[in-house]
Amino acid sequence: MAIEDDVIVVGGGVAGMTAALAAADTGASVRLVTKSQSTLRHASGLVDVLGYADEELIADPFDAIGDLPADHPYAKVGVEAVRDGLARFDAVTGDLYRGGYTDANALLPTHGGAVKPTARYPASAAAGLASDERDALLVGFETLSDFDAPLAADHLRAADVPFDVRGATVSFPGAPRADAKITRYAHALDENDDDERERLAARVERVHEGEPRVGFPAVLGESHHAAVRTALADALDADVFEVPMGPPSLPGMRLEAAYERALRDAGVNVVRRPVDGYETDGDGRLTAVLVERNGQRVPHYADAFVLATGGLVGEGIDSDREGVHEPVFDCHVPHPADRYEWFVDDPFGDQPYPRFGVVVDDDLRPRDATGGIEFENLRAAGSVVGGADFAAECSGTGVSLATGDAAGTAAGSDTQ
User: Fold this and answer.
1) Has residue 104 been placed in a domain?
2) Where is each FAD-dependent oxidoreductase 2 FAD-binding domain found (predicted)?
3) Looking at per-residue confidence, does 365 or 194 come out higher?
4) CATH code for the domain in which residue 287 is found
5) Strand runs (DSSP E) across 294-340, as ranges?
6) Strand, helix or coil at 98?
7) Which of 40, 274, 393, 399 is 20 to 30 A away from residue 189, measured at CA?
8) Domain boundary, last residue among 189, 218, 243
């Protein structure tokens, strides 16, 4: 029996999941095909729209989007698509996130003591805003080397935050191994209810000097994180917040869980298998992707397709000695023939390679080497689209939301 849907989305990150939800919202039947779990569990959980432009900190990303180059993904979809993508994100996350009340970026401290601009942030981090002038205590755990609280506090003071901040290190109840996964800390606070939380609060009380805010590494529970923070806040008589961490990330896992619930509720079918080829009608349209299953390549048919496999980091864009290419649909990726022109010698310079990706028209359809359309019924979304340096701009999640929402809506509408 043939597997048929209105829309197939290839890629399971924020762009792919957003595209799938947007397509389903048009009434289309949608299948999301991804070879692995979302990369969200490796992300901080912060949602960046545009934090920097020309190395300058951006207060309001919406004021700066209009000044971006014409090949930037935001310039392709427009400001309203960014707002639409954020609105869909807000609908998925509900009370899990904050920041929707303003266009301005918030400033959040990170585990290294830097201050990061972001448009949306977990509710668990809300009391830690760097714009808050109340003093703060950062608490680290002896066995969790990824968060050095005294060093992070030193870095925040050097960044001239408008509050006094101290760092202290305590032992975690139960003394996890130094190489324990962060989920072990979270599960201990989830599963042992009041006893474990009270023991942790008692240890923090010994170093707490009455600061009205107390920050912990982002390991305060996975399933019951709100209850964990409330228990610690009550015991310490202080607002408790989590400091976003590097991978693996509990806020990222929580966000992934919220998206998975939304996909189920929207009726999106999720297939966790790699795509290994495609079929066309020979007249400029895709008809199917070939999904690897038990050693066979099984065709999955659809009327419209969205490519959302990620960029160089997510392997949605690949490179070798022969050049740079997009491996799923063989879409054209413009790049210099000389590999030495892919980068500049200055490690802090403006590098060309982060902007590599497929070139799209204003409807997000990938263009071929001659400027024509690769496939009439294929759109691209997220970091597979070229033209942006997501790390330097702090724009990655925002681009994924905006282009994912626009691509999914257009793909779904084409099938109705």
Assistant:
1) no
2) 6-399
3) 365
4) 3.50.50.60
5) 296-307, 318-320, 323-325
6) strand
7) 40
8) 243
CA nearest to 403, candidates 70, 73, 86, 125:
73
**286 and 370 housed in the same domain:** yes
What b/e sequence results for 328-360 when a residue is b if at least 16 CB atoms lie within 10 Å of its CB, and e otherwise?
bbebbbebeeeeeeeeeeeeeeeeebbbbbbbb
Name the DSSP letter for residue 235. H
Q: Please give the angle made by the CA atoms of 19, 24 and 26, to the nearest 5 degrees.
A: 105
pLDDT at position 375 is 96
Over residues 99-116, the pLDDT tens digits come to: 999 999 999 999 999 999
What is the residue range of 173's domain?
111-243
105 lies in some domain: no
Let me know whether 286 and 208 are in one domain.
no
Q: Report pLDDT for 334.
A: 85
pLDDT, residue 19, reads 98
**DSSP structural state of residue 385:** B
The encoded tokens of residue 288 equal 């199917």
Average pLDDT over residues 372-380: 96
CA distances from 9 to 91, 298, 305 (A): 20, 16, 6
Say if residue 149 is in the same domain as residue 190.
yes
Output the CA angle 362-384-380, nearest 5 degrees.
Answer: 40
* Interatomic CA distance for residues 60 and 58, integer angstroms: 6
From 357, 403, 366, select the one nearest 384 (Cα to Cα): 357
**Can you give the length of the chain in residues?**
416
If one counts the domains in the chain, the total is 2
This prediction's pTM: 0.93
Domain boundary among 225, 243, 261: 243
319: its two tokens: 């490179």
Shared-domain flag, residues 392 and 288: yes
Indicate if 171 and 25 belong to the same structural domain: no
Residue 69 lies in a domain: yes
102 is a domain residue: no
φ/ψ (deg, to 5) at 398:
-60, -45
Q: Counting beta carbons within 10 angstroms of the beta carbon of residue 104, is it exposed (0 to 12), middle (13 to 18) or buried (19 or more)?
A: middle
